[in-house]
Every structure is written in C-alpha cells, then in structure tokens.
Design a protein that fits this description.
This protein has about 375 residues and is mostly beta strands. It has one helix and 18 strands. The model has no long low-confidence stretch (mean pLDDT about 95).
C-alpha cells in the first residue's frame, strides 16, 4: 500500500541469540534372572535471549494498528523421566510395563507449566517358532497448571479457546503387531495396527476430541543368500472435532476433520556384487486427503473443497567394502511433493482486498540429493 506510512523498525538488527542444551542418561540392570529394568532421564532447554523491542503492526495492508506490540523470544525447558521393566514368564511369553513423566516450562505462552503422565503394558507371545504376537496398550494424561486467559487476550484470542498442544488431554491407545516367518518358506509377513482416542474435556473452544487408526502390512522375500525384496502398504485415518465461535463468545459452529493417508513402498537388497559391492533400492509413495465439514448456527452445513497431497521418494545406495574396516557409500535420493490446496490456488496478492500474505502457490518441491559417505571401524 503506497499510501500507508508504516512506522520505523525498532532497531536495525534482530540481534537474535538462542542457546540450546541437551542431556540424556539411561541405566539398565538385571536385578533377577529373566528380567530387565531400565531408567532414563532427558533434559532439553532452549534459552532465547533475543532482546525485546516494541513495534507497531500494520493491519491488513490498510492501516497501522496505532498500538505497540513486543516480540516474544520463546524459550522452554523440558524434562522427561521413564521407567520400564520386563520379565520372561516362559520362553514363549514376555510381559513388560512402564511409566513416563514429562514436564515442560515455557515463556510467553498461555500455559507456562505442563506435565504429562503415561503408563503402558505390553505382552509378547511366541506360540510357535514362526509366529510372534505383540500387544501393547496404555494411557496418557496431560495436565496444565492454568491457562492464562489474560495473555491469550493480548494475542486477540477468545478467552474460551484452548490450543490443542497446550490444553488438557486424555489419551487411550492400543497397538497390535503380528510377525509370521515360516522356516520352510523364504517369506516374512508383518501386520501392524494401532487405534487411539483423545479427549479434550476441558476445552470449550478448539479441538474437543480426536480418533486415530493406523494399519500396515509388509511382505519380505528372500530371493537368494545375497538378495531380498520387500513390499508394503499402510493406511492411516485421523478424525477430529473442532468447536469455534464467530461471535467471539460461546460456541456457535463445529467442524469435523477427516484426514486419510495411504502409503505403498518397496525395495530391493543385493549383497556381494563382485564380492565387494552392495546395492540398496527403495521407493515410497504417499497420498493424503483431507475433508472438512462445518456446521454453523448462522450458515448451516457446508463443506470445504478437499485438500490432496502426493509424495514420491526414491533412494539408491551403492556400498563398496574397500576392506573389513573401510566402507564407502554413494547415495542418490529423489523426492517430489505435490499439493492441491484450494486456499492457495488462484489466489494472488490482490485477489482478496485487505488481506496480506497472499500469492503463495501450493507446495511442489522436487529434490535431487547426491551423497558420499565413508565409514571406518576402529578396534577389533
């Protein structure tokens, strides 16, 4: 907007500075026969010491807000502790259980302190040499000290809104894995499934519930002593319910989101080509689709256009074993991503009056990567 006289920047340089610290510790022990206990602790800190300054924001390329705002140098401190134990009841049956606790402290966000407690149990059963069944389930509960509505109001948010990553959440989930590898056949079959349910019972606005389901199957073939082939396919479905307000008070609209992802992949491994060369070839294709249906007290039922994405990824690796200690690897990767996004397609910088940041096209990157790696093993 050539007619708009925006205010000067508060300083010539951001003078940004961020320090990160990470520490991890683990301890494993076998207190009694047929058992194992493991303790872990992780500490992760991001200290953003970027100086703050006041600046006047331009609203929709039409006018200056006339009010000064201050940049927020976000920082956090995360701690995670976990304890697990397993015991072999029989040679064919193993049981395990564990607990986890995560603590997060943040600056300049609506929730300053957040904790998450989780517990899980696991049973692994091998009824025969060729078959293994693994079942796992658990719960997670995320608590917050309080939601700072006054801070949210400074961001222009409805005081009833709860951001999904900061809100109270209770999750229940279960996972099942089956692996079958008959000795008489050069084939291995793997089946995996997961289902989870999230509840945001303390959120009046925002996401209130979500369900996730994932299934996958893999098939591996041993072609010879030095060659193998695998193929696989997977499906993931995520459904969620979001509640909002056009009137900036109580809820007056709701939206259901349905996201589906399908994946197919395959690969080939060949060892000892000319006694020193190994070849690895992999290909993955993923398709995604999103549907959003809105039910509003003012406009009734409506549906947004679908959002579709597609990604192709291929990898070729050649490993030359120069000696027992030195391996040289040449790697070639190709990736293409395409998206059909109704919110971006056909929308130029001046298509919609008084709206900034338009003119961006849907993502469609194409990447080719060539890499060379050397691995040298020390000692015996």
């Amino acid at each position: 907007n050539a007619n708009l006289a925006a205010g000067a920047l508060p300083r010539n340089s951001l003078a940004g500075s961020v320090d990160t610290t990470r520490f991890a510790f683990s301890l494993s022990a076998k207190p009694v026969a047929k058992s194992r206990v493991r303790l872990t602790y992780r500490f992760d800190e991001r200290d953003n010491s970027t100086p703050q300054a006041a600046w006047s924001r331009v609203i929709a390329d039409s006018f200056s807000s006339g009010e000064f705002e201050t940049n927020a140098p976000y920082s956090y401190e995360r701690k995670a502790f976990s304890a697990s134990a397993l015991y072999d009841l029989r040679t064919t049956l193993r049981v395990a259980a564990g607990v986890e606790r995560r603590e997060v402290d943040r600056d300049f966000q609506e929730v300053a302190e957040q904790t998450e407690n989780a517990g899980w149990g696991r049973v692994r059963w091998r009824p025969m040499a060729a078959l293994e069944i693994d079942l796992r389930g658990g719960t997670q509960k995320r608590e917050i000290d309080r939601y700072n509505e006054a801070l949210a109001a400074t961001f222009g948010q409805n005081p009833l809104l709860r951001k999904y990553n900061l809100a109270y959440r209770y999750r229940e989930y279960g996972e099942l894995s089956i692996n079958y590898s008959p000795a008489a056949w050069p084939v291995t079959v793997s089946l995996d499934g997961m289902i989870a349910e999230d509840s945001y019972t303390k959120s009046q606005l925002g996401i209130t519930s979500a369900e996730e389901m994932r299934i996958a199957a893999d098939l591996s073939f041993t072609l010879s002593d030095n060659a193998s082939l695998y193929v696989g396919a997977g499906l993931e479905d995520i459904e969620s319910l979001q509640v909002g307000s056009d009137s900036f008070v109580t809820p007056d609209w709701r939206a259901t989101h349905d996201d589906d992802f399908t994946t197919v992949n395959g690969g080939l491994r060949i060892r000892n080509i000319g006694e020193r060369l190994d070849l690895s070839l992999d290909y993955t294709r993923t398709n995604g689709g999103s549907e959003i249906v809105v039910d509003s007290a003012f406009d009734g039922l409506s549906e947004f256009p679908d959002l579709d994405t597609e990604m192709h990824h291929a990898r070729l690796a050649l490993t030359y074993r120069r000696s027992e200690r030195l391996h040289i690897e040449l790697q070639l990767r190709y990736q293409r991503f395409e998206a059909e996004d109704w919110a971006l397609e056909g929308v130029g910088p001046a298509t919609i009056p008084t709206v900034l940041s338009l003119g961006a096209e849907p993502y469609s990157p194409e990447v080719v990567l060539v890499g060379l790696a050397f691995r040298y093993r020390l000692g015996e």
